[in-house]
Amino acid sequence: MKIDDFSHWVLDRQQDVERALERWVSDESPAGLGAVMRYAVLDGGKRLRPLLVMAAAEAVSGDSAAALRAAVAVELIHAYSLVHDDMPCMDNDVLRRGKPTVHVRYGEAQAMLAGDAMQALAFEVLTPDEGMPPQLMSTLVRLLARASGHDGMAGGQAIDLASVGRSLDEQSLRDMHRRKTGVLLQASVMMGAACGNADAAALAALSEYGAAVGLAFQVVDDVLDVTQDSEVLGKTAGKDIDQNKPTFVSLLGLESAQRYAHDLRDQAHAALARSGLGQAAYLACLADKIVERDN
């Protein structure tokens, strides 16, 4: 695939998601809460999770309207998690997506409420009054809930907080990041796949692809934390070292961590080849984008 074709596809889908977020994240919530939510989720981020949803849906010739709802829902969950993770009781960060974090801009109480509201809105978006088959609705809700909860993102964050200052072996570190970061990326792929009619073999291959790119994303994050500055990252660089957190770089070394990210990309490409899907080029490009990014 030509780079220009992929770039145009990314821009088009990002604009679709941005317009949908503009529409569904209202600024009319009471006491200024809507403005806080919009600050947290609009006009920022790579929209990687929505792109994975939509690329997977297109790979299986899925329902585009359902895929757009799934894309918005997963981005709302991602945004809520960032708001909460940045708070003083968690990672205590002051910079996100190149601007002050939500609790710095609006205070801790509003940040907590905005995160809560975006989490609820994600599931509201997935449960329209009409236009989506009940079985698909149930599947999307289940996938997103499992990825967000105790066995996924929340559980991973709990392990992360409990691991400060501790040494983790590679298996434990992989499990932490699979939960904290990888599962939501994998769920994005599977939510997109659920919008079509892929067979069991294709779904299994897409699940393997999602697991590989999900872990690769975190490995690259760990690499960038020590190789880029805050201006490029749009968030505080070097904070993992400052907070004495275990990372793939601290465990494997920089060069080995970089090789591991490329190995995971190769695993993702191999999974796509096994899927038998003829329209998976955008998923392949996204795997490359995840590993080759600089922020």
Task: Offer a concise description of the structure.
GO terms for molecular function: metal ion binding; prenyltransferase activity. This protein is mostly helical and 295 residues long. 72% of the residues lie in helices and 1% in strands.
Spell out the key features of this protein.
295 residues, mainly alpha, two-stranded antiparallel sheet, globular, metal-binding, transferase, Prenyl_diphosphate_synthase, Isoprenoid_synthase_dom_sf, Polyprenyl_synt
Description:
The chain is built from 15 helices and two strands. The chain has helices spanning 3-24, 33-41, 48-59, 64-85, 102-106, 108-125, 134-148, 153-162, 170-194, 200-227, 230-233, 239-242, 248-252, 254-275, 281-292, and strands at 95-96, 99-100. A two-stranded antiparallel sheet has the order 1-2. Helix 4 (64-85) packs antiparallel against helix 9 (170-194) and helix 10 runs parallel beside helix 15. The chain is globular and about 45 Å long. The two termini are 23 Å apart. The mean pLDDT is 93.
Write the layout of secondary structure elements.
Layout: H1 3-24, H2 33-41, H3 48-59, H4 64-85, E1 95-96, E2 99-100, H5 102-106, H6 108-125, H7 134-148, H8 153-162, H9 170-194, H10 200-227, H11 230-233, H12 239-242, H13 248-252, H14 254-275, H15 281-292
Antiparallel strand pairs: 1-2
Helix pairs in contact: 1-4, 2-6, 3-4, 3-9, 3-15, 4-6, 4-9, 7-9, 8-9, 9-10, 10-14, 10-15, 14-15
